Amino acid sequence: MVATTSQTSFYPTRIDLPLETRQSVADMLNTTLAATTDLRTQTKQAHWNVKGKDFYQLHLLFDEMAGELEAFSDMVAERVTALAGTAMGTVRVAASRSILPEYDFDAVGGMEHVAALADRYAAYAKHLRTSIDQADELGDQDTNDLYVEISRTIDKRLWFLEAHLVG
User: Fold this and answer.
1) Are 146 and 78 contacting, i.e. CB atoms less than 8 angstroms apart?
2) pLDDT for res 2
């Protein structure tokens, strides 16, 4: 069984959000951390294994996207710890808590990888929008802002992926 943030200790803090709010937000952020870590590794899977006429362009694009996701993982984890919680960032936690489906290991061609990543980026974008609303409902505008920032970039990357699939 994977522990949730609300089952872990929270450290003393002078942040004025109530403990219950911080626990709820940290748990939500840890779900996002799991999904972000999973999406990064799936994007690297595509980066390593892409083949075809668009190999070089997609190889570079996927690597750039994975780098962005790495930065987002760090931002999300640091928000958890700023709330005096514990970032649950191991690969095992990511595997057990990710909201994303497993990657298609049979994907070879560039457009197969693009379509697989587009599906996962769309699911991740939906999760982010839900989290934006939840952070707002919980009264944590800083976390809300973090989610909005990530969401803008993910929507842009989804647009990039989908542009490859037209025509």
Assistant:
1) no
2) 58
